[in-house]
Structure formats: C-alpha cells, structure tokens
Amino acid sequence: MSEILFYLGALMIIIGGICDLLGAIGLLRFPNFYVRLHAATVGTIGGAVVPLFGISLLSLGADFLPHKYAIAGASFVTGVIILLAAPAGATALAYAAHRAKLVKWEPKVDHLAEVRKND
Amino acid sequence: MKRLLSLLILLGIIIGLAFYLSLPTQEGLRSLGEFYLESSYFGDYSAKSPEVVTSILWDYRGVDTLFETAVFFLAIIGSLTIFRIEGKKERAEAKSSLPLPVPVVTKFIATLILAISASIALHGQLTPGGGFQGGVALAVAPLLIIAAYSKYALENNGLDKTKAIILRSIGLLGIALIALIPLLSGGHIMQNQPIFPAEALGVPLGGSLIYYNIFEFLAVGAGFTAVFLLLAIPEEEFKEKGGACE
C-alpha cells in the first residue's frame, strides 16, 4: 500500500515538472496575453498544485521520513490554497486587461458573435 | 548555436566550481557558535529560546533592533506626512466590480493570512520568523482586500487610517515599555532573563521575546496597513482636497 502511494506521488511530481516546462514554453511562445495567461495557469495548477498533492501522497507512503503526517498535511493544505487562489488571480488579471482594453482582441472564433447574428 | 555553446560552457564552469568549492564538513562547535548558543538558549541570563536568530535580534543585540524599528517608524511617519489630506472623509459604497470568484476567494485567503501571520509572530521564539515577518504577512490581508473590493471595504468596517496609526503607536509604546521594565527591577535596559518568565504552562516564551514579537507584529502590520490605505486614495479625491499643495 505504502509503495503504491510512494510511486503515485513520484509520478505526480514528474507530471508537475512536465507541466511547468510546458507552461514556461507556452509563456514564451504563445501570441497574446490571454493565451499566455492560460500557459501561466498551466504552470501554477499543473506545476505547483499537482506536485504538492504528489508530495503529500509520497510522504504518506514514505516510512523512512520523520514527521511524515505533518509534511503530508502541510503540502495538501498548501495545494488546496493555491488551487483556490491561482484561478482567482488569473480571472482578475484577464478581467482587468479586458476592461482596460489593453490587449488587442483578435478572435479566431467568436461564438458569441455567431449567436448574436442568429438571434 | 553560438548562444547554446556559451550556455553549455557556462553550465560546465558552474558545475565544475560547485564540485571544486565544496565546503569542508564541520566537526565540533566553533567558539562563536558556542557563544551564540550559550547566550540564547543555555546560559542563566539567556532568553531560553531555541530560535537563536530571534534571540540575537531582540536580546543581546536588542538596542540595534530597537533603532531599526525606529527607522521603520520614521519612514511610515514620513509617508503619512507627505500624503496628508485634511477635511471630512466621504465614504463610498464598497462593492467589488471583479468577477465573482475573485472576491469570494479573497475573503477566504485574507482570513487564512490573518491566522498564519499570527502564528508566525507568536511562534517567533520557537521557529524561524517573528514579529516583523508576521507583521509583513499580516499587512498582505488588507492589501488583498483593497485590491479585490476597495479601501472603503476596510473603512466601512472600522479600520481607517487613524485607527491603524493608533494601533501602530500602541505597538511602539509596548516595545518601549517592555524594554524599560527591567530598569524597575534593578536590571539593565532590554535585559531578558531572569526578569521575564522563561515559560508558561510548559510553553517556552523566551522571556521578553514573545512580548517584543507581539508588539512588533501589531506595529508593523498596522503601519503598513496605514500606508496602503493612503496609497489607495483615489486620485480625484486627493486633488479635490489639495493634499500635497498646502
């Protein structure tokens, strides 16, 4: 049981590393602010929350670790807090950029306009 | 390609230096370390605090920290003087114009920050952290509320600039009193043990360290809150009242 937890946690940490890498590449290569914001959120949710949950599973499975329940609890709580805060921050940023009209809006697909046209 | 090559060379140099400059492993206690431990945890006149850094800061280098705190207060007073606004305050309605998740999460996070900052400050004699760090963490909560709602959300709930300044002054007064108390019982200024109790109910208090931490927490948190409230004044209001022109 503890081995399963250990390897599951390690796998989640690796997934987190991959998400961080993808988020960083996206932040550099994506064309405009909103898509870059998406890449940054991939970096925070996939690259911080998932590995934090992974650490909590890993430390529950690691019998050699001192204070393993404290580490597991702390990383779980931190993960939940980031899981709450990151989308809120991204929402606030996107909303502010949209309201201030700072970003040029060039939609490839505009479903809202299509709906309006059909009405 | 050229950039990649230089990057690789840089990486090689860094790794090589890291291998070359490996620190020698230390065996035994040096005399300086022994002095610190003796003056912060073990000795009769020490703070009996396992957190040596807090002990150094507030105990046997306490006057230095007192003056550092004074410098911080002068900075706050300076900014309060620059942004002076006379006249009656009008209070607008505090409503968040941001999308729903932002204010809800902000409420939750601000509450958490209050608890965590109190924990940082009150554990200052046991774990890394202390009054200043706790106070800075505390000041993030009003800053978040100002960003998500407005400064009127704080003012309508009773935390305006005047109250923040009063709280800050209480903190400074507390630090000064705690520093002067040892004089009454025949000690030196800012002396720690054995005038203050080393522990209560089995919890190590670190003598005067916990009181310094509490008051510094209050002072730093309230001071930063006052400055944030000032910085959040809308520009129109500032121009109307002619704040800086007088």
Automatic annotation (TrEMBL), chain A:
<dbReference type="GO" id="GO:0015385">
    <property type="term" value="F:sodium:proton antiporter activity"/>
</dbReference>
<feature type="transmembrane region" description="Helical">
    <location>
        <begin position="37"/>
        <end position="58"/>
    </location>
</feature>
<feature type="transmembrane region" description="Helical">
    <location>
        <begin position="70"/>
        <end position="96"/>
    </location>
</feature>
<protein>
    <submittedName>
        <fullName>Monovalent cation/proton antiporter, MnhG/PhaG subunit subfamily</fullName>
    </submittedName>
</protein>
<feature type="transmembrane region" description="Helical">
    <location>
        <begin position="6"/>
        <end position="30"/>
    </location>
</feature>
<keyword id="KW-0812">Transmembrane</keyword>
<keyword id="KW-1133">Transmembrane helix</keyword>
<dbReference type="InterPro" id="IPR005133">
    <property type="entry name" value="PhaG_MnhG_YufB"/>
</dbReference>
<dbReference type="Pfam" id="PF03334">
    <property type="entry name" value="PhaG_MnhG_YufB"/>
</dbReference>
<keyword id="KW-0472">Membrane</keyword>
UniProtKB/TrEMBL annotation, chain B:
<keyword id="KW-1003">Cell membrane</keyword>
<keyword id="KW-0812">Transmembrane</keyword>
<dbReference type="InterPro" id="IPR050622">
    <property type="entry name" value="CPA3_antiporter_subunitB"/>
</dbReference>
<dbReference type="GO" id="GO:0005886">
    <property type="term" value="C:plasma membrane"/>
</dbReference>
<dbReference type="InterPro" id="IPR007182">
    <property type="entry name" value="MnhB"/>
</dbReference>
<feature type="transmembrane region" description="Helical">
    <location>
        <begin position="170"/>
        <end position="190"/>
    </location>
</feature>
<dbReference type="Pfam" id="PF04039">
    <property type="entry name" value="MnhB"/>
</dbReference>
<keyword id="KW-1133">Transmembrane helix</keyword>
<feature type="transmembrane region" description="Helical">
    <location>
        <begin position="210"/>
        <end position="233"/>
    </location>
</feature>
<feature type="transmembrane region" description="Helical">
    <location>
        <begin position="104"/>
        <end position="124"/>
    </location>
</feature>
<feature type="domain" description="Na+/H+ antiporter MnhB subunit-related protein">
    <location>
        <begin position="104"/>
        <end position="225"/>
    </location>
</feature>
<protein>
    <submittedName>
        <fullName>Membrane bound complex 1, subunit D</fullName>
    </submittedName>
</protein>
<feature type="transmembrane region" description="Helical">
    <location>
        <begin position="130"/>
        <end position="149"/>
    </location>
</feature>
<feature type="transmembrane region" description="Helical">
    <location>
        <begin position="65"/>
        <end position="83"/>
    </location>
</feature>
<keyword id="KW-0472">Membrane</keyword>
